[in-house]
Amino acid sequence: MSDSITFKSPAKVNYYLKVGEKLPNGYHKIATVMCAVSIYDTITLTFEGKGIKIESNDPNVPIGSSNTVFRAAQILLKEAKIVQDDIGIKVAIQKNIPIEAGLGGASSNAASIILKLNEHLNLGLPLEKLLTIGNEVGSDVPFFIFGSPALVTGVGEKVEAIDGIPETWVVIVKPPGSVSTKLAYKKIDLGLTSIKKSTIIPTFNNTLKGLADKMENDFESVVEVETNGETFTSEKENIYLPDVGKIKKELEKLGSLKAMLSGSGSSVFGIFENRDDAEIASKEIRSNKDWSVFLAQGLSYNNVGN
Fold first, then answer.
1. Among the four residues 28, 63, 179, 290, which has the most C-beta atoms within 10 Å?
2. Which of residues 144, 161, 178 is at a domain's end?
3. Is 120 helix (H, G, I), strand (E, B) or coil?
4. Is the preceding omega at residue 112 within 30 degrees of 0, hence cis?
5. Which of 8, 95, 140, 187 is catalytic?
6. pLDDT for residue 2
7. In terms of pLDDT, which residue wins out, 218 or 117?
8. Paired sense of beta strands 3-22 and 150-154, if any
9. What domain range includes position 137?
10. Are residues 83 and 180 in the same domain?
């Protein structure tokens, strides 16, 4: 008889994101402030059969070993000295968080599985070990394991709680198209990281105005192309997203204190004084049928896996 558990996996936004120098291993130093938001994928974890199996309602989600959830389960089982074929794990991912949108859906899914397997299999691995495992899977995974608004530095492995983030309602807008994170970093290398510079870590005063004043994202110079009309292309990918600038202007016109790209995009989010203002803005901006619109609340605790 199979044993199943179902839980939710949240998205995130970046209130602050600075990209530093590129390291010899190809990764970049970063400094970012992340907060989970109440947009969720739903995951059902079933113990049956043998090996690790992934399925999803979204055909764009990989179901093999390249899936972050697959890698997370694989690394965790190895750490716990459990032979992969001695246990059957099936993970069904019901996607709601847009893919390649700067909202961290895949990383959140992986973190959820790490936490749930540690709990359900009674592995007893401490938080520090879980964070290390998460970092092996991907740079945003440790944040979701950590479970609260956080400052993330290094190459994503250093996570610490950050104070002063106010309760926030956000409207998130996903335009057509997506951004390859790899390509975004490639373009950012052309200018932003050619000169080594110090990064001042922001401090927040628990007010929305204070948050808006500190919001900044280096990737905006890469994907916000409305004003200059430039394109950046490789043989197979492009990063031309004129809607980013349009969405920012629209959100701020509708009352957002600040609108900004999340992660490397393509989603844009705006922060609002209260839920009523955010709801009015989200209804208004839905008039553009090409954009996917989400109303969400910033989470003081991620509740990953709950």
1. 179
2. 161
3. helix
4. no
5. 140
6. 64
7. 117
8. unpaired
9. 3-161
10. no
pLDDT tens readout for residues 180-202 = 677 777 777 655 544 455 567 88
pTM here?
A: 0.89
3-state secondary structure of 297: strand
140 is known as an active-site residue: yes
Number of domain units in the chain: 2
Interior angle at CA 106, CA 245 and CA 283, nearest 5: 45
Residue 297, Cβ density class (10 Å: 0-12 exposed, 13-18 middle, ≥19 buried) = middle
- Residue 303 in any domain: the answer is no
Domain end residue (candidates: 161, 186, 216): 161
pLDDT digits (tens, 9 = 90+) for 208-254: 999 999 999 988 877 754 333 344 443 334 455 778 889 999 999 99
Whether 177 and 154 share a structural domain: no
Do residues 225 and 129 both lie within one domain?
no
Q: Verify whether residue 12 is a known catalytic residue.
A: yes
299: its two tokens = 């989470």
Which token pair is 269? 């989010």
Could you say which of 12, 95, 116, 258 is catalytic?
A: 12
